[in-house]
Design goal:
- By secondary structure, this protein is α/β, with parallel strands linked by helices.
- It is 44% helix and 13% strand.
- It has 29 helices and 21 strands.
- The strands form 5 sheets. A 7-stranded parallel sheet has the order 3-4-2-5-6-1-7, sandwiched between helices.
- Helix 3 (57-66) runs parallel beside helix 4 and helix 21 (513-528) crosses helix 23.
- The longest helix is centred in the middle third of the chain and has 23 residues, at 447-469.
- It is globular, with a radius of gyration of 27 Å.
- Bound molecules: adenosine-5'-diphosphate and magnesium ion.
- Residues 80-81, 173 line the site of magnesium ion.
Length: 704
């Protein structure tokens, strides 16, 4: 649904970390004395104060010390940072850390400084003089760690400055941001691949909590890692019981209230699909609980207040969009609820992973229905326009270049759709756009990568939906999705498939006669040939009494009773991977009708038909033309355009990368007087507010 992660450079106000001057610690002297004898366990104790390594840390540290490139994928909280911090110290010199969030950077620097390490950071939130000092310290060799935001590497001369004194280790945190197949792609990460060679030969360690095998490969190739040591571990969370429940949107709020009524299920994070719903749900829940909303459309003051109240236990329910969570460390979250289907398994896994960091029993409950998928598909169509529309723009570009205004006229596209399509064309190299918004034709090989990206987005939605429908163990499905290297592959024993009796939100009923009969027919069919696909079996059995959905529900009941095991399989069709489920009989198990519990949800109407629809049919596209401006708004609009042009020229990017026409006109129409009303303009989030908020408000005030 709505991408609500626009806070890449999070605001935290001034006065973050204070520089502490410390005596050179004893371990440093020891390290200098025998630099070639890295004793990792001693350093772990002396520098970090930890008694022992957590799983996989030692072997990863050893690989980095050796000088191998490393890809480390472990869940949040597993202790990835140590895997560059400890080797960084052992290797001597400065470790360069690339990190996408200012808040994360500040936390890390603060922690390292508190340990007596010399850590500094350079990012847009700091005064120029402070950044300059950090550069000087770096060049003088006075830093153990230098943290930078990825966009720094685009500043002319900056990578060259770093290269004057090469780092001894390079760590790329949140490395999934480099992959456009990841769930949080950041274009600024893309240039890392180009800039890193300048800073080599230091080894590179890429760290992330969320990378499927595809994303893992992408990280390795984009960063040009060589003979990479890959460590992919720890995705199984044994203390989170996962429940996936089908509920109509109108029923979900009541279910949430019920779940949270038990105090043992709080503190809780409720993930809502949109900003609006996050506010509405928070308002409703506030009647009974200490609850607050959190999303990217709130001012940074309101957001940090909500976050801090939650961390301090002053409120125990936070109703958030996906903007909430990165870098949040609250150990005792008992429940994570999703009130709609997430857009990808990667995002979903990250979000449920915020439950039970303290190791105590916790629960993750997803409330969804098939209609949620439609919403995602709608946004997909909107945010990734069809290839043919990009083609239309590409063809309309004249040999000398054409302005965007002329292109809008020539292509007759609605402005917002045009901007989306042009942006994609530009991202994939099919168009070159200068800061004056003159568009020139780019390379012609943009189609394949664009189609691939679009197909990938669609696959993510498909997989999420299949996950919601599966009768296989939830945790095992997640672990398999991430390709964990050492997972035992056993069912979790606590999800809604493995332990129906402990379900909190799922409701069951006894089977009716037709369902019981179908259950025995299914078992017979599997005795004959095991491992059949569900759809195939439904057809083969010539199932008359039960439609496909009810048939599916019976399989679910058999799976929960332990008589069958369901696994996922896939085949390729027209370049897309189609996932389906196979059913395996466990012959040692027996079932009586009394064991069968059917999910008590009203039957889904037409869902199966919808699922089988071809991708060619799509929902009505909402055409939104720009509002007509009058009076003072026209003056503001012109002033904003003039400013945008200057800014684009200065930053050497196309104007639409500064602000789209739609957003710009939205500001002119709304004439915001303060940050809060600016944030209500569609297209404005925290990152734009932080970067341009003051300027934009000043322009409005001046011109109005
Ligand atoms: P990640 O980056 O994987 O999300 P962090 O590196 O932030 O996780 O570590 C999570 C927490 O675990 C931190 O508070 C860190 O100090 C702690 N930690 C890391 N390694 C160890 C260890 N070997 N022993 C005890 N605590 C550790
Ligand atoms: Mg981390």
């Amino acid at each position: 649904m709505e991408q609500d992660t626009g806070d890449s450079e999070d605001a935290r106000g001034p006065g973050w970390a204070t520089v502490t001057t410390v005596e050179a610690p004893a371990w440093r002297a020891a390290l200098l004395r025998d630099a070639n004898v890295p004793r990792l366990p001693e350093l772990l104790r002396d520098v970090f104060g930890f008694d022992s390594f957590r799983p996989y840390q030692e072997e990863v540290c050893a690989a980095v010390v050796r000088g191998d490139d490393v890809l480390l994928v472990m869940p949040t909280g597993a202790g990835k940072s140590l895997c560059y911090q400890l080797p960084g110290i052992t290797r001597g010199g400065t470790t360069l850390v690339v990190s996408p969030l200012i808040a994360l950077m500040e936390d890390q620097v603060e922690q390292l400084q508190a340990l007596g390490l010399r850590a500094e950071r350079i990012h847009s939130g700091r005064a120029r003089a402070d950044s300059r000092n950090a550069c000087r310290d770096y060049l003088d060799g006075n830093l153990d760690f230098l943290f930078i935001a990825p966009e720094r590497l685009r500043v002319p001369g900056f990578p060259e400055m770093l290269a004057k004194r090469k780092p001894t280790l390079i760590a790329i945190d949140e490395a999934h941001c480099i992959s456009q197949w990841g769930h949080d792609f950041r274009p600024d990460y893309r240039m890392l691949g180009d800039r890193l060679p300048l800073l080599r030969p230091a080894p590179v360690i890429a760290l992330t909590a969320t990378a499927t095998p595809t994303v893992q490969d992408d990280i390795v190739s984009e960063l040009r890692l060589v003979s990479t040591f890959r460590s992919i571990h720890g995705f199984r969370r044994t203390n989170i019981a996962v429940e996936v429940v089908e509920r109509k949107p109108s029923e979900r709020l009541a279910v949430v209230k019920n779940i949270l009524a038990d105090a043992a299920r709080r503190p809780a994070i409720v993930y809502a699909p949109t900003r609006k719903e996050s506010e509405e749900t928070a308002k409703e829940l506030s009647k009974r609980f200490h609850a607050a909303a959190y999303h990217a459309g709130l001012t940074s003051a309101v957001r940090s207040e909500a976050q801090s109240l939650f961390l301090r236990g002053k409120i125990d329910v936070i109703v958030a969009t996906t903007a909430f969570g990165m870098g949040i460390d609250k150990a005792n979250v008992r429940t994570v609820i999703h009130t709609a289907l997430p857009a990808s398994i990667e995002g979903y896994y990250q979000e449920i992973g915020r439950a039970g960091r303290d190791g105590l029993a916790s629960r993750a409950i997803l409330l969804q229905s098939f209609g949620d998928t439609k919403t995602h598909e709608f946004f997909l169509e909107r945010d990734y326009p069809e290839e043919s529309l990009l083609e239309t723009i590409h063809d309309a570009i004249g040999p000398q270049g054409t302005t965007t205004d002329d292109l809008v006229r020539k292509t007759r596209m609605p402005r917002d759709l045009f901007e989306k399509a042009l942006e994609k064309l530009w991202v994939h190299g099919g168009a070159l756009v200068d800061f004056d918004d003159v568009v020139r034709r780019g390379a012609s090989d943009w189609r394949r990568p664009y189609e691939k990206q679009r197909a990938h987005k669609r696959t993510q939605i498909d997989k999420m939906q299949r996950y919601a429908e599966t009768h296989a163990c939830r945790m095992l499905s997640l672990v398999t999705h991430f390709g964990d290297q050492n997972d035992p592959g056993t069912p979790c024993g606590s999800c809604d498939v493995c332990a129906e009796a402990t379900c909190v939100a799922q409701e069951f009923r006894a089977p009716i006669q037709q369902e019981i009969e179908a259950a025995y027919r299914i078992i017979d069919a599997l005795v004959e040939r095991n491992g059949r696909a569900i759809g195939q079996m439904h057809r083969d059995l010539g199932e008359k009494s039960l439609d496909r959905d009810s048939f599916d529900a019976v399989i679910g009941a058999l799976a929960r009773a332990g008589v069958v095991r369901v696994s996922q399989d896939a085949f390729e069709k027209e370049g897309r991977s189609i996932v389906f489920q196979r059913v395996h009989l466990r012959p040692e198990m027996h079932v009586t009708p009394g064991d069968l519990r059917i999910i008590a949800t009203p039957k889904r109407k037409g869902s199966r038909a919808g699922r089988e629809r071809k991708s060619g049919s799509r929902g009505e596209r909402e055409v939104m033309e720009l509002p007509a401006l009058t009076g003072a708004s026209l003056v503001v609009d012109a002033a904003l355009r003039a400013w945008r042009k200057e800014e684009a020229r200065f930053r050497k990017v196309p104007a639409f990368r500064i602000l789209t026409d739609k957003t710009l006109t939205g500001i002119a129409a709304a004439m915001p007087r303060d940050e809060a009303s600016l944030l209500r303009v569609s297209g404005i989030g925290p990152s734009i507010t932080e970067r341009y908020g003051k300027v934009l408000l000043a322009i409005v005030a001046r011109s109005a």
